[in-house]
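re: the backbone from monday

yeah here it is again, tokenized this time
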């Protein structure tokens, strides 16, 4: 049984994990950089340890400092949240080597799914459909162009490791392939320290749909349905919904069962998300994220399952508290990511939050670490809050979302609230008629 957990993250996800720990009676240790000394997760934790100066590589990504903090505080487990060290197989292995429990999958599975080429091969072998593409890394321009010719234009050039839309470029013809290829490799090298890229067939108008899974070490693996994450800017999600408007319950049950069975065959442990592109009634696997997702709350509110709690319990050796037959889907949920960014240019915004007012009322949940007078530093990801709205159906959900966005006040910095206010009144969004290129195509946010 886990008694004390170090939370190796910051911001809203650190607060979210901390709350799950409190519900389970687990003591908490927060880590922080010098820039986050007064952050909400530090204030709420039972203990805190400073792990370095503001730059992430010197603090939140500093593996020796993070593990040392766990050891000196007497923690027996580490939860990595998302981002930072959450999908670092070496870190997971080192945590276990120090006699600590890593709240996540086995290091081998993190490494396997961190290599997107290997991930595609693995799930293709397990019977899931994949996007047509290269079987391995495109290591030089001649080999890459030959692959592109075989796949057929347009093609998508993607980082073999990493995510978040970085190192991703589209080539519409041979004429622009070289520039797109070189740019993708350069961005991939800078972002992930590895310039390996691979090629996929570029789907013209797909939706981005992902399935949430949980598995324990005793052979039980279940799915909690899907989320539609098609509203994106620069290949990064800003609005997610559950369930998807394009799937029937029968299809959800059948495809979800196939996914859960595939994950079970791997012997996977913990939570994970399998991401797909969906076009013309066809699903194509693109990657698996071996961590808790930013958008997990919308699945929680439509299933009434505390995903973080289950993640902690199965990592600690417990069986899943529910079977697939226990999973029921209720109503509709939407999450809006509130980033500290300009709503037109998407340039980040840092500063001190003033006049902070959080929306409320039926069906409204806000996951955030903000408070009046808190500082949003310039060193980290711009996500500062998540507005989650739940209702009996999508029409009521949109009405509640419109109300909640109108109530939400965050002064002192720029946020994406104005963009979401535009989206909630957009006729295509209201009708559910959108794909992953919607923002760039419609100009709902000039920088999209």
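seq for it, each position gets an aa:
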């Amino acid at each position: 049984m886990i008694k004390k957990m170090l939370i190796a993250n910051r911001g809203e996800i650190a607060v979210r994990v901390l709350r799950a720990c409190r519900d389970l009676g687990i003591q908490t240790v927060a880590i922080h950089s010098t820039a986050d000394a007064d952050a909400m997760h530090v204030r709420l934790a039972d203990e805190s340890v400073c792990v370095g100066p503001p730059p992430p590589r010197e603090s939140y990504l500093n593996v020796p400092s993070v593990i040392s903090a766990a050891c000196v505080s007497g923690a027996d487990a580490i939860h990595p949240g998302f981002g930072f060290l959450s999908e670092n197989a070496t870190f997971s292995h080192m945590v276990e080597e120090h006699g600590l429990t890593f709240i996540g999958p086995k290091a081998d599975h993190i490494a396997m799914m961190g290599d997107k080429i290997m991930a595609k091969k693995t799930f293709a072998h397990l019977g899931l459909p994949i996007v047509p593409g290269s079987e391995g890394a495109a290591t030089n321009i001649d080999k890459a162009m030959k692959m592109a010719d075989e796949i057929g234009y347009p093609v998508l050039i993607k980082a073999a490791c990493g995510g978040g839309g970085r190192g991703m470029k589209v080539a519409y013809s041979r004429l622009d392939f070289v520039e797109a290829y070189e740019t993708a490799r350069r961005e991939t090298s800078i972002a992930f320290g590895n310039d390996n890229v691979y090629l996929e067939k570029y789907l013209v108008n797909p939706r981005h749909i992902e399935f949430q899974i949980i598995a324990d070490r005793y052979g039980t693996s279940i799915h909690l349905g899907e989320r539609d994450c098609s509203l994106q800017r620069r290949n990064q999600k800003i609005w997610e919904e559950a369930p998807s408007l394009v799937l029937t319950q029968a299809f959800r049950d059948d495809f979800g069962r196939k996914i859960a069975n595939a994950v079970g065959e791997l012997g996977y442990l913990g939570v994970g998300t399998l991401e797909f592109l969906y076009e013309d009634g066809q699903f194509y696997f693109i990657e698996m994220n071996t961590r808790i997702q930013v958008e997990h709350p919308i699945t929680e509110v439509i299933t009434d399952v505390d995903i973080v709690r289950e993640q902690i319990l199965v990592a600690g050796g417990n069986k899943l508290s529910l079977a697939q037959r226990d999973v029921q889907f209720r109503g509709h949920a939407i999450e809006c990511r509130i980033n500290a960014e300009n709503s037109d240019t998407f340039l980040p915004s840092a500063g001190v939050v003033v006049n902070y007012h959080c929306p409320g009322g039926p069906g409204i949940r806000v996951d955030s670490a903000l408070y009046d007078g808190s500082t949003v530093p310039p060193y980290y990801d711009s996500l500062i809050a998540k507005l989650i709205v739940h209702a009996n159906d999508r029409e009521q959900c949109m009405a509640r979302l419109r109300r909640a966005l109108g109530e939400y006040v965050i002064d002192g910095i720029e946020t994406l609230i104005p963009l979401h206010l535009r989206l909630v009144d957009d006729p295509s969004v209201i009708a559910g008629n959108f794909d992953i290129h919607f923002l760039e195509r419609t100009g709902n946010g000039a920088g999209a």
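Residues 4-81 form a domain with the Rossmann fold fold (CATH 3.40.50.20). The chain is about 35% helix and 25% strand.
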